[in-house]
Amino acid sequence: MGGLVILDAAQTTRQLPFDGLVEALRHGFIEGCQLPERHHHTLTREGELDATLLLMPAWTDPGKGRSYLGVKLVTVVPGNAARELPGLVSTYILFDGLTGEQLALMDGNTITGRRTAATSALAASYLSRPDSSKLLVLGAGRVGSLIPEAYQAVRPIETVAVWDINPDAARRLTDQLVNQGFRASVADDLERAVKSADIVSTATLATTPIVRGAWLQPGTHVDLIGAFTPQMREADDDVIRRASLYIDTTEAFHEAGDIVQPIEHGIISKETVRGTLAQLCKTSQPARGSDDEITCFKAVGSGLADLVSAKMVYRRLR
Prior knowledge:
The protein is α/β, with parallel strands linked by helices. The chain folds into 2 domains: 5-111 and 304-317, 2-Layer Sandwich (ornithine cyclodeaminase, domain 1); 128-301, Rossmann fold (3-Layer(aba) Sandwich), CATH 3.40.50. It has 11 helices and 14 strands. It has helices spanning 9-14, 18-31, 108-127, 142-152, 167-179, 190-196, 237-242, 252-255, 257-264, 277-283, 303-317, and strands spanning 5-6, 39-43, 51-59, 68-76, 88-96, 102-107, 134-138, 159-163, 183-186, 199-202, 221-224, 244-247, 275-276, 295-298. The protein has an 8-stranded parallel sheet with strand order 9-8-7-10-11-14-12-13, sandwiched between helices. A hairpin with an 8-residue loop joins strand 3 (51-59) and strand 4. Helix 2 (18-31) crosses helix 11. The model has no long low-confidence stretch (mean pLDDT 94).
């Protein structure tokens, strides 16, 4: 395949089925890659909030097959809400790691959404009970809509309950999931829904906890996807205290409010965290000690997962 390949959102999605993506991520976290610190630039705006430009580079280690280099470019423009335009736009560029040749330009939002859901499913393959069939999704946005399909790649999900701060959004996602073949319903009572779930997956913009540790039943797995800044929280201190805690990368110690705040308040220490996703993958054994153990996985996102996803898109096209 010669020249630059350009893929829109639909084309990018078709090359990232969740069963294959979860396995690609498993191998990717075992192999690792080079991950420089992300670049963060402020773009001043007159009469509205400043915009942000993010550049997230990653490249494969030499000597591990064909070399690849990828960069995700993200623009965050709060003022676009008034223009009725998306506030976040993302593009991913994949290069040949040896020659620097441009290989593919693909939809970054699709890469981010699907690798996020697949990363959580990968963690759940080690941390959730193998017979987990009841999934609760908190947050009916783009990532929340992908969670059931991603989890179905690793667990026998039979029923899905959906909760969102906006009940209409929860109903829309429920209808979508029913059309996809899931037995889905709206969770009107959040406490009751958490108590009856095998897996609780949160993908919200919550700044105060919405999941209470007192609601968790023995054997529950909690998957925290939102709360990607130190000021945000999705789970209360009781969740963090009760659960066997794992993170995707050590960036969670700096970026995840669900980790940062409990450490600052002396609820836990860094040593409380039992491991990273790479460590789970390298062990290749279920980390759960018993069917009654409560587990929790906190993700903040990784340029490694972006690069793995982009490589998968390009290789499948070839």
